[in-house]
Write a structure and sequence with these properties.
By secondary structure, the protein is of the alpha+beta class. It has 2 helices and 10 strands. The radius of gyration is 26 Å and the shape is globular.
Length: 159
């Protein structure tokens, strides 16, 4: 909207008035665009409550129900992470999640999920086989009657 206002000198001069709402709307849109462009955190569902989670480029994990991964004194240490820190191959065959995870070389200091190697998760029974060699993976796949075709994970849904 074009209006005329009196300047300090008393002469009428033409200018644009912008309301505070328009400024905040513009700022909000700019911030949303920046955050959307920078934030690549995704979580996509897998069978029976498991998820593939990408927290950032060096953290792509398979998460699920908490499980005991060790003891610290008399307390059980629980983790919801099954594979990571970087899942680079994944396939879902029925209720079985098959995949491969790696660690950066040289390893980055990581907190949390450190389960590299091949993995299989039977989601209907919550049985899992982690940190497998290729030979162990192939043998377990044969027992389960599956032939996985591992591909880089895809993400369909924001966390």
């Amino acid at each position: 909207m074009r209006t005329t206002k009196e300047s300090i000198s008393g002469r009428g001069e033409s200018s644009f008035f912008v309301t505070a709402n328009q400024v905040w709307l513009s700022v909000g849109i700019a911030v949303a665009m920046i955050l959307t462009g920078c934030n690549r955190d995704y979580s996509s569902p897998l069978p029976n409550g498991y998820r593939i989670v990408r927290a950032n480029a060096s953290s792509i994990t398979v998460n699920g129900p908490a499980r005991v991964i060790g003891l610290e004194g008399t307390m059980e240490v629980l983790s919801g992470c099954y594979a990571g820190p970087i899942v680079d191959g994944l396939d879902v065959i029925g209720q079985v999640i098959a995949g491969h995870a790696r660690i950066e070389s040289p390893p980055l200091p990581q907190i949390g999920c450190q389960f590299p190697g091949y993995f299989l998760i039977e989601t209907s029974t919550h049985e899992y086989w982690l940190e497998l060699t290729k030979e162990e993976f192939d043998a377990r796949c044969k027992v389960l009657g599956i032939v996985p075709n591992l591909k880089p994970p895809t993400y369909s849904k924001k966390k």
